[in-house]
Design goal:
The chain has 319 residues and is of the alpha/beta class. The chain contains 10 helices and 7 strands. Strands 1, 2, 3, 4, 5, 6 and 7 form a 7-stranded mixed sheet that branches.
Amino acid sequence: MSPIAAESESNVGPGVYGANVTYLKLSPSKAASWVDCPRRYFLTYVERRRSGQTWAHFSFGNSVHAALREWFELPVDQRTSQAVDVLIRQVWIDSGFRDREQSDQWRVRATDMVSAYVRQLDPTFQPFSTERTLAFKAEHFIMQGRIDRIDLTQGRASVVDYKTGKSIPSPGDVRGSQALAMYALMLQRALGHACLEVSLHHLPSGNQVTWTHTDESLRRHLDRVTQIAQDITLAQDTYESNTPDSNTPDSNTPDSNTPDSNTPDAGDSSQERDLMLDELFPARPSALCGFCDFWSDCAVGQSFTRRKEPWEGLSAQVD
């Protein structure tokens, strides 16, 4: 298990701290990774493998998010269309694009997209917070996440999440979003703000889709995340209890130069580990496999689809 000490968390809200108590640390993206593909979860969060791969669609989306954050930091009299171009240039991430020409084309698209979005806003409008990291403790886990924007009206908070993909969200997407529900609970539990309203702002189309939860609907989302946390904890505990720590000295371990007929063959151990991974952290192939950072380490993903080029995910962004 990869727990964290509860007393080490900050911005977690009241009632979190307790001596010698540990909780599984989750985020909406971490929980989604488990649901999408337990093997990818394992490689990312248990083995903590790092990939040098960068993806252009992430660069594009992160740049747009950063520009919107910086927009609300500007004095009101500087919130102009010219300012958007400057902000995009300042925050632009050019990693993953095919070449400079493609990067420049998508930077212009980002500028146009953000310009169209902010034109809909009252220039004097100021959110309660942007890109705020919050957390709360549940029975079996700590949920932490970063919220794109928090609006506060007459003492009631609402969550705003920006989307830059091609697909226009529906009310069902907003209602069913586990991430948005967890953000609402973060505001309730960490900051003490009443929060039932969540929104997806789809920048390419200008659509803004809002859903108002009830306490019961948020509880159902929390129940589902609790089950995910329990499943993850069981898998991680089972794996770790059956995987000796190779860095821990063991006086009962025979010298490597001493033959021992009882010592398992390395090939057998590797095979047993693979079987255990298949059971506890199975690969779940999907269209996402080609964009997985660990495609080269996953035979299932390789058999399902080819490795995508770093810029191919842009096709799922604006036309």
